[in-house]
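Design job #97: recover the sequence.
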């Protein structure tokens, strides 16, 4: 786990450039260069054993050198596996160019991690803090395993501006683009129904979600068979078998606390109109994160949706901290966040989350 701890430390050390009194945008670009190049190299040059599914993506690359394309969302590879057409095309093109299998791992790492960096650069009040949390809260390591989900989530994160500017049609088109790489990005259509949200709709969301879950299971499965046969196999696996509730209850409590803090500052009129909208949007994603985190103990497959919602916490935290003007309190909170995040990362790595420990290079 040393490599991930070193990346976290480096993300903090590199933040010292913000002490230089020059243009903020120039400093942000310099920070991207200093921190995101190592992040990309560590992810892109990893061994096939680093990341639970890395070996599978290397195998799929070999199986996509001779495939027949159609107009369905899924393309059948040489071994019979069903893969989203966007990801299949990407593999096929790299095969045509005679790149080796490690090239797909490097390219996906480059596009995904740089894409998240651009998202933080454009929308976070603190690029370095979002980046530090990105590593420390295991979102970075998650890209080693759920490669296609992370890529789809990155695409949708960069459509965040469409939500702020009420460009719903562009947002819907972006969802379709994300689905080309992982079909589960369809969840954004459902989430989009609640943008922007009113507080009174909170109970409606919970009730509607429970009714769909309890009463609509057969309908959901039937639609999955038609739309995404690849995922039907999950319904007879450990991903659909209930498990005991563990330490995951801490995450919903933390998110609820964060949401209450954000609405406290809204009541105090600390945010301008655009920031208020960002708070609303982020908190909608936080509600879905709480639902996903809580229900995954009944239906573990829901954990697969985590990258789609949890990422927004990485810009919500800096947005809230930006409104704390009392310097001493702000420094204390920063220190606490750093310490707690290090502890969380070390603990998660010790549990072997996403199979990223121990780290090895591909050669």
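Job complete. Output follows.
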């Amino acid at each position: 786990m040393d490599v991930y701890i070193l990346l976290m430390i480096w993300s903090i050390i590199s933040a010292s450039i913000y002490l230089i009194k020059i243009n903020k945008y120039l400093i942000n670009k310099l920070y991207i260069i200093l921190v995101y190049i190592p992040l990309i190299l560590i992810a892109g040059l990893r061994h096939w054993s680093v990341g639970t599914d890395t070996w599978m993506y290397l195998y799929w690359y070999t199986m996509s050198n001779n495939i027949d394309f159609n107009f369905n969302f899924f393309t059948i590879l040489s071994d019979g596996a069903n893969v989203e057409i966007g990801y299949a095309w990407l593999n096929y093109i790299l095969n045509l160019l005679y790149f080796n299998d490690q090239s797909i791992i490097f390219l996906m790492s480059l596009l995904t991690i740089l894409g998240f960096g651009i998202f933080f650069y454009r929308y976070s009040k603190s690029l370095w803090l979002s980046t530090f949390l990105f590593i420390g809260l295991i979102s970075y390591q998650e890209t080693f395993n759920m490669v296609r989900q992370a890529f789809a989530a990155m695409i949708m994160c960069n459509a965040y501006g469409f939500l702020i500017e009420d460009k719903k049609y562009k947002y819907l088109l972006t969802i379709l683009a994300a689905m080309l790489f992982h079909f589960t990005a369809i969840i954004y259509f459902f989430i989009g129904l609640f943008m922007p949200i009113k507080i009174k709709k909170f109970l409606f969301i919970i009730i509607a979600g429970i009714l769909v879950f309890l009463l609509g299971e057969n309908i959901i499965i039937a639609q999955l068979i038609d739309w995404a046969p690849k995922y039907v196999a999950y319904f007879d696996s450990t991903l659909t078998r209930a498990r005991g509730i563990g330490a995951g209850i801490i995450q919903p409590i933390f998110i609820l606390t964060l949401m209450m803090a954000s609405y406290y500052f809204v009541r105090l009129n600390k945010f301008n109109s655009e920031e208020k909208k960002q708070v609303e949007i982020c908190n909608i994603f936080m509600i879905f994160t709480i639902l996903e985190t809580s229900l995954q103990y009944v239906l573990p497959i829901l954990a697969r949706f985590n990258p789609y919602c949890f990422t927004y916490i990485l810009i919500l935290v800096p947005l809230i901290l930006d409104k704390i003007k009392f310097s001493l309190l702000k420094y204390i909170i920063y220190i606490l966040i750093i310490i707690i995040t290090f502890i969380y990362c070390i603990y998660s790595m010790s549990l072997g989350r996403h199979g990223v420990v121990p780290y090895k290079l591909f050669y």
